[in-house]
Structures are given as C-alpha cells and as structure tokens.
Amino acid sequence: MSFIITLLAAVFVFSAVIAIHEFGHFAVAKLCGVQVNEFSIGMGPVLLKKMHHGTQYSLRALPVGGFVALEGEESPESQQAEGEERSDLEERPLSQRSGAASSPDGGALNGEELSQPTGKPLNEAPVWQRALIMAAGACMNFLLGFVVMAILLAAQNEPITSRVIYAVEDGALCGQTGLEAGDKVLAVNGRRCFVANDMLYELMRTEDYSASFTVLRDGKKVELPRVQFDTWQDEDGETHMSLGFTVYGIKKTPVNVIKEAWNSVLYYGRIIFTSLMDLLRGRESINDLSGPVGIVTAIGQAASYGWQDLLELLALITVNVGIFNLLPFPALDGGKVVFLLIEGVTGHAVPEKIQSGLTLAAFALLFALMIFATYNDIVRLVTGAI
Questions:
Q1: If phi over 0 gives left and psi between -120 and 50 gives alpha, with beta otherwise, what is residue 320?
Q2: Which domain of life is it from (predicted)?
Q3: CATH 2.30.42.10 occupies which residues in the chain?
Q4: How far apart are CA 236 and CA 230, in angstroms?
Q5: What pLDDT score was predicted for residue 237?
Q6: What's the pLDDT score for residue 95?
Q7: Domain 160-250 part of CATH 2.30.42.10
Q8: C-alpha distances in Å from residue 217, one per residue of 82, 114, 374
Q9: Which of 1, 124, 213, 323 satisfies CB 3.0 to 4.6 Å to 224 for a cystine?
Q10: Could you tell me the mean pLDDT of each successive run of 10 residues in the chain, 386 residues long?
C-alpha cells in the first residue's frame, strides 16, 4: 500500500510541476501569437487528442509531465510532433491530405474540420517575445509555489509565525548576548529574513552556535554582531542548538496569508540558491546531491505524513524547478534567454552550430550528473541512509 501511495504522490507532484511549467510556455506563446503545434499532458504514446484553433491537445500514456511543441522551435518535442504529423499524414487517404502539413493531426479529427495554423513560427517572433516565452515556464513554477503556500497557510489552525521576539527565556545565552523581547529580526548573518524559517535556516548553517543579527528595536535598526546560543547534547552525543526565545503569532487575514505565501516562495528560492552556491564553493559535498530516486523517496515520506507535508514539498520542488530552469546554462530555459539577450544586444543570433554544440554538451553534463545523483540515491537507499 505504501508503494502505491508513493507512486501516486510522485506522479501527482511531477505532473503538477512539469505540466504547469509547460503551460507557462504555452500560454505566453499563444499571447504572443506564436503557433503552438501541440500541448501535451503526459509523455509517450498518444491516448487522446483533439485539434482546436490550430493546436493539438494531447493526453499521453506516461502520466509524468508534458510538453509544448512550438512551430519553428528546434526541440525534441517539436521534432516529435512534426514526425507524428508526417506519419499521420502518410496514413490518410490522398483526399484528406490537402493542407495537412500545417497541422499535427493532418485533417479532420473527432468530427472537426481541419484547423489551420493560427500563429507565426517561434523564430519569426521578436526577441523580447521569445525571451518571455522561454522564461514563462519558470514563472509559472513560482506562481504554483505561491498558490500552494497560500492554501497551506489558509488551511492551518495555527497563526502565522512572525519574526518578532515575544520572550527570551530566563538565563538564555541569546538574551545575555543581545536579543531582547520586542526585537523584530530583519537579518541573520547579513541575510535578510522574509519569514521565520529564514532565521532557523541561517542558524542551522552556523558552525560555532553564534550569529550576527540585525533587529528593529524601538523603531531603530540595531546591529548585534555576536549573538550566542545555548547548546545541549542528545543520547548519541550529538550537539544541538537551543534557541532560547519565542516569537509572536500573526493574525491569519487574507492579506497576511498572501504576504506570507509570497515570502515563503522567496524563502524557498533563497535556500535553493544558497545550497547551490554552497555546493560550488565546496561547503556542501556533491555526494549530497539527490536524483529522481531520492526525490521520489522524499515524496513518499511526505505523503505518509499527510497532505500538508506533501503540498509543502510540492512547493519546494516547483520553486526548485523554476530556479534551476532560469540558470544561464545552455540546455535550460535560462541558457536560451542568454542566447536571446546576445541576439537582442548585437542584432545577430548566436550561430545555430554553436548553440547546438553547447546545448548538446550541457545535456550530456546534466545527464551524467543525474546518473551520479541517482547512484548516490541508490547507495543511500540500500544502506538505509534515506
């Protein structure tokens, strides 16, 4: 039963994250007048399809993700759609082939007359429109994260956790070294705090159980250069930090929920970007990377705790996908945006041979990284580390 729950939860999370990403590309392409040949939910063989206003809407057999095939785009999905279009056209009687090359379906479908393309090829759109289309997927991932967090905050029984200190425990080291009741925490170790979890995340990263704080006290900004915290040891001898203070709750109004949901997206974005920087700087080991197996395992664990934990993990994953796709890496949307920015500044597109070579090399690197991360996941799974 747990396997089925994990499978269903993983399909739900991956489908939601990827489908909303592709919908972003689809929606902005339509708004910009670019021809969308196909919008597919799922991958693999087609189960159902319907042509509408020049676009084929498909449901495919593998319920993981989806894709958008744009006219004039050199992508595997677009080439697949064109290949299916030619195959479908060849299977039709000659009397039905007229004008079919412009449609992925190649003619009447489900009783409809042939729909002609309604837009222009992607490569004929202005640079700024192409850049918007490429960035739209990541933006929809951020929007999904915002909506999910708003739902979670609205559904919880507890008030929203603030960044204002309610009380400091008697004798707590943090109180002796600077923190006072009523302080509003603005930053920890120089990093701005958007939500209460920002404080906890930065304190978890400290190595000597101390941190610099910037607080708002009596309307004035106060710098506390070295706030120290008490520690305690568990039965295994591991040392843990004790906060030594509590914070106020915030009334759960619609405005506060929206504000906290947006700040939570910023928080997730912060920890993802910080983790990536820690990895590049060597602060975190590459062996800590997780691949599909680790992600599915985490999804299964979250689903076993309840729908709130599953949705919170969904929010983290979708923000992660949004940030990852905006990285200036050739195989990602961010890399395509960089190519378009170069074209916009110079007036000349980066040669297709250079783009294809860089993209192929980047795909190879990403694939190798995914294999390595998957190997780590399997080792951790076998050894019981996850």
A1: alpha
A2: Bacteria
A3: 160-250
A4: 18
A5: 81
A6: 42
A7: yes
A8: 63, 69, 48
A9: 213
A10: 82 90 95 93 89 89 84 64 50 44 40 60 92 96 96 92 94 93 94 91 87 94 94 85 92 94 92 84 74 83 89 94 92 92 92 90 88 81 67
Amino acid at 18: I
Give the pair of three-digit tokens for residue 205. Answer: 């990263």
